[in-house]
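Observation: inputs received (chain + methionine sulfoxide).
Thought: call the complex predictor directly.
Action: predict_structure
Action Input:
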Amino acid sequence: MFIPVEKSNDKKENYRLLLDTLPYYLNETDPWYTTLSNAASIVEYFLDDVNWVGFYLSEKDALYLGPFQGLAACTKITIGNGVVGTSAKNEATLIVKDVNQFAGHITCDSNSKSEIVVPFMKGHTLYGVLDIDSPIESRFDDTDKESLERVMAIVVDKL
Ligand code: SME
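Observation:
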């Protein structure tokens, strides 16, 4: 399936369409920046009510801004800092329903009200995280977590 794809009003159906579409735009012979650029664009296309979708990539004890869709963002986040660095440190998906209640949240876009961060590994090493912001509180739930972890399994396979 190629974009533009007609989206549904149903969130799970849109994730199904996303997961079907994604492989057509990723090639294991491409460099990482090509794969992650298309992945950021495709995720942004299929998700409603998001204002930032992108990657932070692991290097030494920090994460650096990678391909993204949205406003210009912080370039470097230390492991353990903010939502991104906390999720990376724990190597576990983190959903923050209200970013203003998360101690240490790093504000890049003041429109962001909730956030999900999905870390991904290559082998046993942290490669980076997928970070998504929404202008709506409590935008992300377990359906997003499970679906985005599946998305990242497909992406990692091509890196
Ligand atoms: N809010 C993130 C920083 C990255 S931006 O949302 C793009 C955090 O607290 O780590």
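Thought: report the result.
Final Answer: The chain has a mean pLDDT of 97. Residues 52, 73-74, 77, 82-85, 105-106, 108, 112, 115, 131, 133 surround methionine sulfoxide (CB under 6 Å).
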